[in-house]
Automatic annotation (TrEMBL):
<keyword id="KW-0418">Kinase</keyword>
<dbReference type="GO" id="GO:0009228">
    <property type="term" value="P:thiamine biosynthetic process"/>
</dbReference>
<dbReference type="InterPro" id="IPR004399">
    <property type="entry name" value="HMP/HMP-P_kinase_dom"/>
</dbReference>
<protein>
    <recommendedName>
        <fullName>hydroxymethylpyrimidine kinase</fullName>
        <ecNumber>2.7.1.49</ecNumber>
    </recommendedName>
</protein>
<dbReference type="InterPro" id="IPR029056">
    <property type="entry name" value="Ribokinase-like"/>
</dbReference>
<dbReference type="GO" id="GO:0009229">
    <property type="term" value="P:thiamine diphosphate biosynthetic process"/>
</dbReference>
<keyword id="KW-0808">Transferase</keyword>
<comment type="pathway">
    <text>Cofactor biosynthesis; thiamine diphosphate biosynthesis.</text>
</comment>
<dbReference type="GO" id="GO:0008972">
    <property type="term" value="F:phosphomethylpyrimidine kinase activity"/>
</dbReference>
<dbReference type="GO" id="GO:0008902">
    <property type="term" value="F:hydroxymethylpyrimidine kinase activity"/>
</dbReference>
<dbReference type="GO" id="GO:0005829">
    <property type="term" value="C:cytosol"/>
</dbReference>
<dbReference type="Pfam" id="PF08543">
    <property type="entry name" value="Phos_pyr_kin"/>
</dbReference>
<dbReference type="InterPro" id="IPR013749">
    <property type="entry name" value="PM/HMP-P_kinase-1"/>
</dbReference>
<feature type="domain" description="Pyridoxamine kinase/Phosphomethylpyrimidine kinase">
    <location>
        <begin position="18"/>
        <end position="254"/>
    </location>
</feature>
Amino acid sequence: MPQPNPFKPVVLCLSGHDPSGGAGLQADIEALMAQGCHAAPAVTALTVQNTVDVTDFRVLDRDWVLAQANAVLGDMPVSAVKLGMLGSVEMVDTVIELMQANPALPLVCDPVLRAGGGGSLGKEDVGFALRERLLPLALIATPNLPEARILAELPEGSADECAAKLLPYCQNLLITGGHGDEADIHNRLYCKDGSQHDFTCARLPGSYHGSGCTLASALSGRLALGEELVSAVRSALDYTWRTLRDAEQPGHGQYVPRRLPLDFCS
């Protein structure tokens, strides 16, 4: 009988299901496989979306989500937790309960509030609950600039202005760029000790579905492998850029990152 592999870290992923396969838990699974990790996906919400937009979503019952997560935690040596779409304040509270019971696990929080096409993936009060109660439990949060503005309640705020508002709530904050029209994309890591680290990459043409999920999952995988935070952020950003460079357009809307190489199973 095959023996369990003690060298393949397990990452518990709590997020929504995207039927187009571009974002959500499928993105988590593929990105973590590419890092050499095992993804354990627990569904928090079901969505009606594709590469064009999201039209509806349903948040699952909290007991179902806790049961999924605890089934994994009781069976596997989880090395990290990655959060994506939660969708409601009740689900935020559910994750808080879970993390308070497992405080040693590093938590990567991707504060998914809107889909790539612009549709809402959370009720209006979710951002406030994330900022006030969940971000303090996270090792790092990875909002893009529009999400950071929602969390910071600064509709026109710069990355630095949003970080100044959010850092009292979290240990580390990675705000990703790419939503303007500059030639290069600037991503900045803000650390609780006051240090900042800038990561710049060339802008790629097109619009992408699932890039934020890809980044946060890759980062959680690098951390689960034991990589130091700044190095893990750099590795995850580099990987994500490559998935966007090689992205495909399976539908009529945004491009989907190619998170696994074509010869992955050969």
